[in-house]
Structures are given as C-alpha cells and as structure tokens.
User: Fold these one by one.
Assistant:
Number 1:
Amino acid sequence: MYGFVKLSSGSRPDGSLYVPETIPFCRKAFSAPSTPLHLPDVAADVLSAFIDDIPSADLHTITLDAFSFPIPLVKLDGDLYLLELFHGPTLAFKDVGARFMARALSYFLRTQQQKLTIAVATSGDTGSAVAHGFHNVPNISVYVFYPSGKISPIQEQQMTTLAGISMR
C-alpha cells in the first residue's frame, strides 16, 4: 500500500504516477445501505483503504471538514450516476481535491509540529480552489501567483477577497 506521506512528492522518481497495486473493495461504501450514505462517510471509507498513515477517526474528521458543501450524485440512466464536483466554494471541481489535500497536509504538519509554505502559479480556477481550500488551514501558508489582467474578474475576486488575505 502506498501511504500518503510517501506520495507527497506527487510522482515516482521516473516521472510516472503512483498507482495502487490492487484496488480494495470497500464494503461500507458500496453495499446496499438501509439508510442513505453521506459523501464524507463514503470518502473516509474509500480513502482509509489507501491511506494507512491517518487513523480512521481522524480521516473521517478530515473528510467531514473538507466536503462540507453539497456534492450531489445525479442519476443519469439505469445504474449510471454522475458526481457533480462543481458545487464547491469556487464552483470548480478542484475544490474537492484542494480541500482534502489542505486538511490532510495540515494533519501531518500538526503531528510533526512543522509548518509549510506553498507557492502556486495559476491562470484561473486552480488558484481560486487552492486559495479557498487552504484558507485558514493551520500550519500552511499559500502564495498564489497569477497574471494581472489575464484572468476573469470572478477568479481574481475569489483569490483576493478572502478575510486575512494580503495583496502585494
């Protein structure tokens, strides 16, 4: 199993991506439940099959905080469903990944008593998602660089109007 900390580099030394050797079956997430499942619960169940560096209870707390906005599952046809990932704070699918990554990194930084500074360059929605996803997350500072006058006014507002953000 690849632990989360081992994946912090983002890619393997040869430049390829890490992939699991096997895909585990997550009973709780994919069995027919008697009550509707909530996405943070399903996410914690699935992620715990791949992340052994975070205890299940802590992983559940992280997913509850990260996925605190609606992420509807929409039925398309028969057994075909679509998870709409664009309902987050910046209306970009990247909100989902950025919010989870921020909270998981913060968890490790807290346990290791460390701080981290992240620099991100963007031409749009990545910067907004990162700014919102990492906003007020303990032990992490984020700097978002974007080309002046080259992104939409909405994206610039999303990145520059969060409380406590300083523009230089």
Number 2:
Amino acid sequence: MIDETKIPIQNLASRIVWESPWYRVRQDDIRFPDGSTGVYNVVEMPSSVFVVPVLKDGRIVLIRNYRHTLRQWVWEIPAGTVPEGHEADDAARAELLEEAGGVADELIFMQKASTMNGIGEQYAWFYLAKGVELKAQQQEKTEFINVYPMPADEVYQLVYSGQMNDAVSMTALLLAKDRL
C-alpha cells in the first residue's frame, strides 16, 4: 500500500509552454520515488462557476449553447470563469445574467469540485439560484445561446436519457435535485 501521507512526485522545475486568453499549459520536470525523472503537462485554467437557475414557478432554466469544439448545440446550465481577483458568488451572478438573462433572489453554494484532475487544476463551484427572474441576456460575441425554462421532470429526463452530455452541468443538476 502507498503511504498517502507523503507526496510521491517531486516537482523540480516548471515552465509555461503554451497559453491563450482562456488557459495555458505548464510543463513540470518531476522526480518519482525511485529517483527516475519525467515530464508532466498540466492545464492551468481559472475556476469556473455552474449555476442551476430555478424560476419562481419552479421551472429550471437550461441553455442551449453552440459549442464549436463539438460542432453541435449542447444542453447546459449557465456557467463561466471566475475572473482573477473576483469571488465565485459574484461570477455566478454575472454568468446567470450574461447567459440566461437571469437575476436570482437567492444564490446557494452547493459544492466545489475538481473538473479535470488527471490533466489540470481547474475547480468548479456549483450554485443553485432560486427565485430567478429572466431579463435580457448579455452574451459575449463568441456565445450563441438560447434560453429554455422547463419543468424539472423534463430537465432530469434530458440528463437521464443522455440528451444532455455536458458532464459538469449534469453534476450541478444532480447536486440541486434534492434542494428544489
């Protein structure tokens, strides 16, 4: 059995080998417990927020977002990056307004979890937004988003049937289910 009180990989040096406005790749020179060395690439991304918006009448707001990476429209919940120097709560409220046009009476933190622990260090902050009122969206130029308020049973049918394939949105919705 491996001793979990010790860190098995020693970091010798790090350097940024590629970056964009959204993320960067750090390359670490590492040493293993047997003394051998290697290289490990780590994707560095800011934390993100994921918001499950619930209208005053109990419907859940989903968005249909065009994702160029997949070349398809995807069912999701409002989400986005936590800007450096900002609080996750503030980012959650901003993304709710930007992507869905939503303003919440109450924002409830549910959980924080890593999203890509095998290749990166990003964390997701999951929120439930209650008493949401929909207003005008404030989308960015690269966003193509439609808003769909739906009864909860229809939303969870999308999750369980495989029609929703965004794992982080599904995680947020499952965390929210017993809190609706």
Number 3:
Amino acid sequence: MRWIFAHRLNGASTASIARALNDRHIPPPSARDPVRNKHRTGTAWTLRTVTEILANPRYTGRQVWNRQRTDHNETVPGDKRTSLGPTRAWNPRSDWVFSAHRAHPALVSDADFLAAQAITAVPVPRNGAMRRYQLTGLLICGTCGRRLEGHWVHGRAGYRCRHGHTSTRPHDQRVHSVYWPERHILDPLLYSLSYEGELPLFATVDDLLSHLQTRDLVIICDVTALRLETEEKELPPTTIPRWDDFGGG
C-alpha cells in the first residue's frame, strides 16, 4: 500500500499503478485475502481497486465511521412496509467520522493521504471558466459502441474513446483510440452542402443539436469517418465529410 501511495504522489496515474502491479504478478486484495474481500472476485488489479485504496482513510491508522448508510427505498417515504428492499449507499465524505487517535499503525501519513486526494481531484481551467462539451451524449464509438467522453486539448473541446482499454492492459493489447476535435464534427454538419435532403442548413449550433436530439439521431465516430444513425436503427449510409474537405487545418 505504501508503494501505491508513493507512486501516486510521484504523479503516476491509477491505470499505470494497476498495470505495474499486474506486470509484477502481485495479487490484488481479492486474491491475497478472499475471506475479507468476498465482494471482490477478480484476480487482477483494476482501476477501481487502486482508486478505492487511495481514497480509504483507514490507511492513515484512524478508524472511520458513518461511511455508508442503509437506504430502505420506500415507495411511501418513512413507511418501511413499502420498502423495495434495503441497499447500501455511500455517505458524503463530509459526514464521515474519524477517530481522534490512531487505532492501528499507519501505512501513510495524514499529509500524504490528503495530498493523494488532491491529485485525484477533477482538473479545472486555471481561469475557473466552465468547459462546455456541446456534443455530450450524441457521439457513439464506431469500434466498440461506447459513448465518447469529453477531452479538453490545447484549449479546445474534443471527444475520445479508448474502448475500455485504459485500465490495466499492456499497451500492445490496445485498439487504436478514436479521437475527434469538436469543430471537426460540427463544421461539416453545419456547412456541408452534401447534406441537402438529409440535414437542413442550420443557423446556429443549438439549432443543429436540437434537430439531432428531437429525431433521436446520434453520430457514429470511426477513426477516420463519421456517419449518422438513429438510436434504434441505422439510417441509409450517410457519411459526414472530413474536416479536410473544407480546407481546414
């Protein structure tokens, strides 16, 4: 555990930490101590395992209470007779209760633990401005079928899919990632004359997005090409021109 925290504090990603542990054939908690980890059945380190270790304050030696609660999921609030069955849920970190004294030897100092939490914080622009990804939810990976995630690069919005292979797989086992700058998707849709009969000309991006959403249209993103489909079934092949067709750089 000390090794995990040390590498995180040196700037290693959770994926690289998990990959290094697997490469060294170090068993994860579920394999090393299955009795105490009945909720885990994996035989390899995953992103979730590393992330949970880095976020667990018990490695500072302190006891922690009130981390979870039981929700009874009543259809009539307060009436347990209408419960759909209890489920466990995490309380906000601000509601956790920590022991004033250490209950067992610490594997990481309080300062290092807090520093590791800061590393896992979601990065925000230096000027505090909110980043807007206009195509969120409308882009589907043509390779694996996942929705593309927003990815801010060089001050501009883009979208990518790494097909779920970002966790712990060796680099030589990965499929080529799909990546599209946002403007390379929007400009062909807004300005391409080849869409006569397929898409009208739009005055604004909001008009285009509203058209796609109300008609259940999504954009399928392959490595080098784009096409439109409905959520339920594929439309006749409709290829979106590449940004290069407009002379863009």
